[in-house]
Amino acid sequence: MRAAVVTSFGGPEAVRVVETEVPEPGARQVRIKVAAAALNPVDAGVREGVFGGAGKTIGLGWDVAGTVDATGVATAWKAGDEVVALDYGMVKPLGAHAEYVVVPAEAVAAAPRTADAVHAATLPLNALTAAQALDLLDLASGASLLVTGAAGAVGGYAVQLAARRGVSVTALAREDDEDLVRSLGAARFTGGAVGARGFDAVLDAAVLGERALGWVRDGGAYVGVIPQAAPAPERGVRVDAVEVSADGARLAELVGLVDAGALTLRVAGTFPLDDAAKAHARLAEGGVRGRLVLVP
What we know:
- This protein folds into 2 domains: 2-123 and 265-295, Medium-chain alcohol dehydrogenases, catalytic domain (Quinone Oxidoreductase, Chain A, domain 1); 126-241, Rossmann fold.
- A hairpin with an 8-residue loop joins strand 1 and strand 2.
- It contains 8 helices and 16 strands.
- Helix content is 24%, strand content 30%.
- The N and C termini lie close together (10 Å).
- Helix 3 packs across helix 4 (153-164).
- The strands form 3 sheets. Strands 3, 5, 6, 7, 8, 15 and 16 form a 7-stranded mixed sheet that branches. Strands 11-10-9-12-13-14 form a 6-stranded parallel sheet.
């Protein structure tokens, strides 16, 4: 089968599509025939060597939508099931950017009924990150939340999920993204002039760090999306960072919200798997709204 990997670190040109053996599922694992797999900033980080692994062949790709092809023992999934899954792991020999991927059975959820595979592939990593970040914040209905990077994939899901919880969301994004983030449920919008601190919490999807922390009221809460980049606590502000985990049950809940029309799946473009390096180059250009998706 074909798979996108890196064998040395660098820019988009470091991505190679190679021929490799089809992986076999073990106990409590399923093999998915990939129909679509989203490209995320974490893939660029892996490609650049941010997470280590020098001297190894490292597979790329965390998000997958496709069809169960084979299973190991002790799993309720069966061949032919249409599914989505998070293939968690920074340094792994194969990822979801391949024709087949093996994942733990507990990382899998039934695919949305109302979306094609390309759109469904944009859900797992980013929606789980947003949901788990909001869990860390644990905000009550009526609380004020600033979401930075609100037009991005994680930020957009965070806006929608927080608004559903009755949280008053202010979206920080580029001026030309105002209509988008308001359509996702943001009660207020700012293009950068946030002003004095005063929010009960900040979900820092744009990784602004100390700057975003400064907008939280004394005793409030801050959650980032990169554990290593969380700023130091101050003024009694609770500081945390989400490290996403594969959770098929929670992913199934998010799929339910997609089917109910409560979560918006955004595709910025598609690329054939063989053009994975071109997809990385497009991601590196910036300004992507939604996710780029690779199709084997």
